[in-house]
Amino acid sequence: MELDAARDAVARRIMVMNERVNALKARGLYFYNQPITELRGGARVLVNGREMGMYASYSYLGLVGHPRINKAAQEAVEKYGTGTHGVRSLAGSLKLHEELEETIAEFKHAEAAITYTSGYVTNLTVVSTLMGRGDWVLSDKLNHASIVDGCLMSGAVFRRFKHNDMDDLERRLQQVPSGAAKLVVADAVFSMDGDIIDLPRMAELCRKYDAWLMIDEAHSVGVLGKTGRGIEEHFGLEDVIDIKMGTLSKTIPSVGGYVAGKKEIITYLRHASRAYIFSAALPPAQAAAAKEAFKIILEEPWRIEKLRANTEIFINGLKSAGFDTMLTETAIVPVLCGSDERAFALTAACQRSDIFVLPVVSPAVPEGLARLRATVTAAHEPDEIEHAIDVMVKAGKEIGII
């Protein structure tokens, strides 16, 4: 860019980011959007011609490539083609989409459900459609960016409470003016830390202060609960969440997002949320794949049991070696490195030994809290996990993290 243009604030932001990217590329520390050319059995991938163990996957139950899911998608393409011909409200809704929403509602023990084209869009549109000026939205400090953006877009008074701190949430609830509508929103499992929201206490506070409760289950469906139904099952609670949000692109190997809840809420969203009214429907193959995946979760409970066993091996192995895995209780295992430089160094060392992990650095996390966001799935075998731990421990010692 020319120097005159660089004085412009937008051009300056673009230039700074490009300089950072180029500097990382020059040092061989650029790991963003690495091309994966093949998925091999869920636990291994082919990257730049090299087979690596996959420890950055959201496919917690190892359902990517499941024969039944692949077949369902293929049959949908044969029957309906590769896409829809417009938005459901104007061009018509496939029976397949209605069946998917019925499946989700049944899975989540809800009266009804609605689907959207992405998880990000789901949070953005649901929060901004339900809440408006004069309302209050109270959000956990570590909530996903899509929740934050939905809160900001709503125009409501937006306040954050300390992470998983129910006393601070209660203080925030007490600040809401009498008569104002209130929404409390939080992740079920936090995507960068792996810990679980204190749902029992949060639900109790929402009842006490007459607040709506929305929980993002992107990383808890298929992970929490005896049958993988999520956080309510995990805590032995029944229907305490008003807005049950989730994604179709993590444990469910498809794309999109959903909300399940009372019929009245879903009817309102179907007629008022812009992302539903003005966005094309999910492609038939993706809807069919998601529908089949929910069935498989219930029919193959061994996957949930294996995921939990693998998670325990991974967390305990890293902690016993001296790594700080923060407060994780799930398959999301942060490996705290401290500085961005150490996170990049640990990533490079692991990938040289064919362990595919990726760093999370500032501004995605605060400076000084850079980490690897490592994951395990039901597709891993215990010996594979032990090998990955050995690689990370050796590298961590050489770098000085442990």
Brief characterization of the structure:
45% of the residues lie in helices and 17% in strands. It has 402 residues and is of the alpha/beta class.
Name the CATH homologous superfamily of the largest domain.
Answer: Type I PLP-dependent aspartate aminotransferase-like (Major domain)
* Largest sheet report: 7 strands, mixed
Spatial order of the strands forming the largest sheet: 4-10-9-8-7-5-6
Q: Say what the CATH topology of the largest domain is.
A: Aspartate Aminotransferase, domain 2
Q: What does this 3D model show about the protein?
A:
This protein has about 400 residues and is an alpha/beta fold. It folds into two domains: about 25-55 and about 300-400, Aspartate Aminotransferase, domain 1 (Alpha-Beta Complex); about 65-300, Aspartate Aminotransferase, domain 2 (3-Layer(aba) Sandwich), CATH 3.40.640. It has helices spanning about 5, 10-25, 65-80, 90, 95-105, 120-130, 145-155, 165-175, 200-210, 230-235, 265-270, 275, 285-300, 300-320, 340-350, 380-400; strands at about 35-40, 45, 50-55, 110-115, 135-140, 155-160, 180-185, 210-215, 245, 255-260, 330-340, 355, 360, 370-375. The longest helix has 19 residues, at about 300-320. It is globular, with a radius of gyration of 22 Å.
